[in-house]
Specification:
The chain has helices spanning 3-29, 36-64, 67-97, 106-156, 160-174, 179-196, 207-224, 238-241, 250-261, 299-312, and strands at 205-206, 231-235, 245-246, 262-263, 269-275, 279-288, 316-322, 326-334. With 335 residues, the protein is of the alpha+beta class. The protein folds into 2 domains: 12-153, no CATH class; 199-334, Histidine kinase-like ATPase, C-terminal domain (Heat Shock Protein 90). The strands form 2 sheets. Strands 2, 4, 5, 6, 7 and 8 form a 6-stranded mixed beta sheet that branches. A two-stranded antiparallel ribbon has the order 1-3.
């Protein structure tokens, strides 16, 4: 068991011990004649109601985002609890008297309903506290990711003009010796310039700039491999002409994943990108490389998913299929 989960369980057990001890001590002072068995039976029921409401009923009703449904679920739970509590009364009395005792009075319902309302109130408060903490953690995680991206971008911008000047110097010396190497160096310079450029106010770039980068990335990898890798590149011409705007490095991250983790020597990778006024469709398919993928290598994809949620909320569908030998990524995005 994970240490943090064990710590949580021990905390809950400690709180319940303190809570039950307090209530039992008050009941004894008020003259209660209930036995340990009686208390145990009813606290099992009460604790069960508490956690069922917090982790099952309230979770389900909360996802529906309906106050009326939430209230209806609470009322239904209260009614079921009343029946179970009366049944527990009959069971406890029958055990104490060693024969079936069925004696139900209006006061029994009043008592069970009051206890039900009491524990449902505690449980509902606990549910909302958990939800608030969870939402806060998600918000802090999103802010942490965004800050990390911004810091990475700032680090990349340190004295970029000096870097470009060095690349231009090497290019001028290299172009007569090896034109292909010089062209590759210049493509790399353009890619670096794109990655380092300052984002616009809304954090978006023109779609055609991102598509140019994808096309450039494909050509650079083919040159590096000595033209030994095969890529079926199906980028629609409309992608270069459209004036739509998207977050920079978003599509590029998914395409880069093909070259990082794919086996493009035994079978060609397929990269298709199409767009219209309503949306964009990116699909990649490649053989899996026969190598171990470390957890840290998923950071780029995880960041891309986080950015999709940030900029497009639920206006996208991202599907990934991996059968162990072939990996397929399918992204449909409403622009």
């Amino acid at each position: 068991m994970h240490p943090s989960r064990l710590k949580t369980i021990l905390l809950h057990v400690s709180v319940w011990i303190c809570f039950i001890s307090y209530e039992v001590s008050i009941a004894i002072r008020l003259g209660s004649k209930a036995t340990v068995f009686d208390f145990a039976c009813f606290y099992v029921l009460n604790i069960g109601l508490f956690y069922f409401n917090a982790h099952v009923a309230s979770q389900w009703a909360g996802r529906k985002q309906s106050v009326a449904l939430f209230a209806a679920v609470l009322i239904l739970e209260l009614g079921v609890y009343d029946l179970l509590s009366i049944g527990m009364d009959i069971f406890v009395n029958s055990v104490a008297n060693r024969h079936l005792v069925v004696a139900i009075y209006p006061a029994d319902h009043v008592r069970s309903l009051w206890r039900g309302i009491y524990f449902l109130s505690l449980s509902t408060g606990y549910y909302f506290a958990l939800r608030s903490i969870r939402n806060l953690k998600l918000k802090l995680e999103a802010e942490r990711r965004e800050a990390a991206l911004e810091n990475a971008h700032l680090r990349a911008q340190i004295n970029p003009h000096w870097l470009y000047n060095v690349i231009n110097f090497i290019y001028n010396d290299l172009v007569d010796i090896s034109p292909r190497a010089a062209d590759s160096l210049m493509m790399l310079a353009h890619s670096m310039r794109y990655a380092m450029m300052a984002p616009q106010e809304d954090g978006l770039v023109e779609l055609y700039k991102e598509v140019e980068q994808i096309d450039r990335l494909i050509r650079i990898n083919q040159v590096i491999s000595g033209e030994r890798i095969a890529v079926i590149n199906q980028i629609g011409e409309e992608c270069f002409a459209m004036k739509k705007r998207i977050p920079p490095m978003l599509l590029l991250t998914f395409v880069e994943n093909v070259f990082k983790h794919g086996n493009l020597f035994d079978a060609p990778a397929k990269i298709s990108l199409n767009a219209n006024d309503n949306g964009l469709h990116l699909r990649t398919e490649n053989l899996r490389a026969n190598r171990r993928v470390f957890a840290s290598e998923h950071i780029g994809i995880d960041n891309a998913k986080a950015r999709l949620k940030k900029y497009y909320n639920n206006n996208f569908v991202l599907e990934q299929h991996d059968n162990g030998s072939t990996f397929i990524l399918d992204l449909k995005l409403n622009l």
